[in-house]
Amino acid sequence: MTFKVNEIKISYREHTKMADTPQLTSSRDVAALLHANWDADTLALKESFKILLLNNSNRVKGTYQVSDGGITGTVVDLRILFAVVLKTLSVAIILAHNHPSGNLKPSQPDKQLTQKIKRAAQLFDIKVLDHLIIVPNGDYFSFADNGLI
Predict the structure, then answer these.
(1) Which positions are tagged coiled coil (predicted)?
(2) In which order are the strands placed within the sheet that holds 60-68?
């Protein structure tokens, strides 16, 4: 009896030279990049969760939308998040999600999710540098700046 299984292929291709990508040095840089690349039509409509994938020099390898949720929340599957992080060989990540309400205060679930991702990342020697909450008017809340990461 012969058994066939599916082949799994993992690849990553750079379409932009890393030297030409943004180098993030502050939460302000991160917030500006997020606002410039977030779909303005949905920022005030529904929650989404994204990650910024970084190399060892904090240059942006890319962004990935992990989840797209509802009006008051979104579900983040850590298996999907880390599949992307590992596939891109990223050494650091920045977490981000929006609050359509404009409220910058992180909820208890926001804090718990951040810590859960941080613990999982440690197993792979991946740094979680920050978690930003962005709101439609351009403001943001940085977990790192506020001692929560």
Answers:
(1) none
(2) 60-68, 48-54, 92-98, 127-134, 140-142
Instruction: Tell me how long the chain is.
Output: 149
Per-residue pLDDT in tens (0 to 9) along the chain, 149 residues: 778 888 777 666 777 888 888 889 999 999 999 999 999 889 999 999 999 999 999 999 999 999 999 888 899 999 999 999 999 999 999 999 999 999 999 999 999 999 999 999 999 999 999 999 999 999 999 999 999 99
Identify whether the C-beta of residue 47 lies closer than 8 Å to the C-beta of residue 74.
Answer: yes
- For the whole model, what pTM was predicted? 0.90
Q: What is the distance between the alpha carbons of residues 138 and 99, in angstroms, rounded to a whole number?
A: 11
Q: Which residues contact 28 (CB under 8 A, 6 or more apart)?
A: none
70's tokens: 């509802």
